[in-house]
Design goal:
It is a single chain. It contains 14 helices and 13 strands. By secondary structure, it is α/β, with parallel strands linked by helices. It has a nine-stranded mixed sheet with strand order 10-9-7-6-5-1-11-12-13. A two-stranded antiparallel sheet has the order 2-4.
């Protein structure tokens, strides 16, 4: 891609990204099968994949910590591994991996789970990441634990952006999808966080509320956007996926040919760390087979440069998806996205 092409792409991308409606519409279009078969677009997209895959063949752009596999909700779309565990990543191990990640040039960090707010040291982890020089730190949460003290600690931690997963603006639907959570309490938590953020005149974290598109919320999606766009920075609806084949979805039977699938964006962009301190190949596969290296006995650099992980990436570039978990995974993250 030439300098002029890259400048035009960035300008266009920034316009789309900053407009909520255009952003949602654009991602629907660029991930559609029809658009992917359009020759002019396909040529541009292939160049993007070629450039970014080479850039992230070894050192990724993001380090993602699955802080815990424990959760206070039993969501219908999540595999059991996400919410039935009781593991938390060791704090000193977290600090060592975070430091080694910065030494490799990684500047972005993501916290996920389970439910990250169950970790009593989560705000210490965020502050440590910012002290190390991570320029962008993001966290996912279901919002149910954003009580008074947590809201203030979060706003003062330096967190750059926050995604709150909230799958319906209708109480009955929400409590069916996110079993174990209370709709009214969680809505109050979210609104109170946004009010406090405004009171403190803080630009961060950017608050994003998202809904997973499920059959259970099919007829209430417009109401969801109308309900939350008044106080959240971004409101969006994301596609359901099958967690590398671990759960059944409406898309689980979709067949991909070896040539129509693109290399997995997540595989290249992210280095994903489990609660037990292992590097795994992606954030979607929660099985033991996804684990690449035990970081309790291996350096982070050696893990991300490991022969197995590099081989999986090279296979993807050849449109070979025979790795366990990759074969029937329905997750399709766009290569246009920059974390």
């Amino acid at each position: 891609m030439s300098f002029l092409e890259s400048r035009l792409y960035k300008a266009f991308y920034d316009v789309i990204r900053k407009n909520k409606t255009l952003n949602h519409l654009a991602h629907k279009i660029i991930q559609s099968e029809r658009m992917r078969k359009f020759p002019f677009y396909r040529n541009i997209y292939d160049k993007i994949i070629e450039k970014k895959s080479a850039q992230y063949m070894n050192a990724p752009n993001v380090i993602e910590f699955e802080i815990t596999n424990k959760c206070n909700s039993n969501c219908i779309m999540c595999p059991p591994e996400v919410h039935l565990g009781n593991d938390f990543i060791d704090h000193e191990l977290f600090k060592r991996i975070a430091k080694e990640g910065r030494e490799l040039g990684i500047r972005r960090m993501v916290f996920t789970g389970g439910e990250p707010l169950l970790d009593k040291l989560i705000f210490d982890k965020i502050k440590y990441a910012k002290e190390l020089g991570y320029t962008y730190v993001h966290m996912f949460t279901n919002g149910s634990l954003l009580i008074d003290s947590f809201r203030e600690n979060l706003l003062k931690s330096g967190l750059d952006s926050l995604t709150i997963s909230f799958d319906s603006a209708i109480k009955e639907e929400y409590e069916k999808i996110r079993a174990g959570l209370n709709y009214d309490k969680t809505v109050n938590n979210i609104k109170s966080l946004c009010i406090l953020k405004k009171k403190l005149k803080s630009d961060i974290p950017i608050v994003r509320i998202n809904m997973v598109a499920l059959p259970e919320n099919l007829h209430s999606r417009r109401f969801f956007i109308q309900t939350f766009r008044g106080f959240a920075d971004i409101v969006e609806i994301i596609d359901e996926h099958n967690f590398a084949g671990s759960v059944e979805t409406d898309f689980s039977t979709r067949e991909y040919s070896q040539t129509s699938r693109d290399p997995c964006h997540i595989l290249f962009i992210k280095a994903c760390i489990t609660p037990t301190g292992c590097l795994k190949k992606c954030s979607i596969d929660h099985t033991a087979k996804a684990e690449i290296c035990d970081l309790r006995t291996t350096s982070f650099k050696d893990a991300v440069y490991s022969e197995r992980l590099v081989k999986i990436k090279k296979d993807h570039l050849l449109h070979t998806f025979s790795e366990s978990g990759c074969t029937n995974c329905t997750q399709r993250e766009s290569w246009w996205v920059d974390y």
